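Hi both,

Apologies for the delay on this - the queue was longer than expected. I finally got the flavin-adenine dinucleotide-bound model through. Below you'll find the protein sequence and the ligand SMILES exactly as submitted, and right after that the structure tokens for the full complex including the ligand.
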Amino acid sequence: MRIEKVDVLIIGGGAAGLAAAIEAKNTGVKTLLLERDRNTGGVLNQCIHNGFGLHVFKEELTGPEFMERLWEELGNLDEIIRNNYTVLKIDHINREVITLSEEGIVVFKPKALIMATGARERPLNALRIPGSRVAGVYTAGVAQKMVNIYNRLPGNRVLIVGSGDIGLIMARRLKIEGMDVLGVVEIMPEPGGLIRNVVQCLEDFNIPLWLSHTVFKIHGKERLEGVTIGKVDENFNPIPGTERYIEVDTLVASVGLIPQNELIENFVEMDPINRGPVIDDLMRTSIEWIFAAGNNVAIHDLVDFVYEEGKIAGRNAAKYVLGEKLPKPKYIFKRGNNVGVLLPQRFTGKEPFKMYLRPKKSLEKSAILFSGKVVRKFNWKIRPSEMIDLVVRNFESLPNEVLVEVNKID
Ligand SMILES: Cc1cc2nc3c(=O)[nH]c(=O)nc-3n(C[C@H](O)[C@H](O)[C@H](O)COP(=O)(O)OP(=O)(O)OC[C@H]3O[C@@H](n4cnc5c(N)ncnc54)[C@H](O)[C@@H]3O)c2cc1C
């Protein structure tokens, strides 16, 4: 068993991990990034549509193009990146990271660690739909990988479950590749993804969207033969008489992403709503030498935000290694009315920083309030599917515990 010492160790080579590596490496500390896949890039590899990088590079790039920009920024990749390294365990007491690779078990001893493990997909089974476990049922990510990376179609006639951005993008992708896309069913009364994606991926391709609908039953014994869909009431109970049979050989489930935190959730303070670690504005977790960034902290809509977080984590992890005294968090954000995802939850009060949040429910006209004080107004409809970013400044006037609310205004 080999033991390696390193200054900043990054787990995960998606956009967050690569951005963290760029920043840490630029300070001159010994930086290493471990990626379990044979390539870095994470989900960027399979997202061949454009819409990446508008904030960061002021251009609309595809996922792989965005990834290449990060590789260029990073420079000598071989020195910094180890592909095919899966992290199995973190021993936080002894500060050891245990990995498995072709070289066998290698143990790393980092001075600082950055978690950038991204998210995994929720499987369709989580919805407990009656029927057999037939072939032809895929998660959106797996279907996307088949089509965009392996050049294979999953079937001929497909129904998509879930209208988040990934479901919408896959509906368009499969249609362009020649499948009959029968529609997208969404259990909520509103689409789960960005409105621009509803227009560009469904309306422009005449793909129907059934809101307040779900799959009641899966038909078929070995291969999927069809599904029964129907309408649900406001408590998501099936409404009898609304059933309709649709003949399909493929079902693509896009029913949510779950931040991946199995490696740290037993010893780091976790946020039950974000399903990621509680972090401060330096992207530091409750353990001072462990930082985190990206979809493992909370699910983000835009890679630009993930990239910015990765850079903050990389910069501060390097400062920590170099012995710079990082300020401790002084203020706490607490969730109030209509606040879902919220990060960071703590902040040091040292410089302006970005805060991200999602409202729990849609509002036509609204405002964000910090302990009763309006800090931003919206004259357009805000929705849970669109993450709001907000630069926080002038917090000297705020109490140490800031209640964040998203309220309706006239
Ligand atoms: C289908 C889809 C479409 C999207 N479209 C857009 C868009 O148009 N515009 C936009 O801005 N954003 C878009 N996004 C969002 C954006 O791509 C993501 O938010 C971002 O790329 C996530 O980066 P990440 O680094 O947090 O996670 P990931 O890309 O998931 O990277 C995490 C990495 O960690 C590795 N890893 C995990 N566990 C371990 C372990 N134990 N050991 C070693 N390695 C590990 C994984 O293999 C993976 O490579 C889209 C996302 C998806 C899924």
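Main takeaway for now: Residues 11-17, 34-37, 42-44, 47, 51-52, 86-87, 116-119, 144, 165-166, 169, 260, 294-295, 300, 302-304, 306 surround flavin-adenine dinucleotide (CB under 6 Å).

I'll put the files on the shared drive as well.

H.
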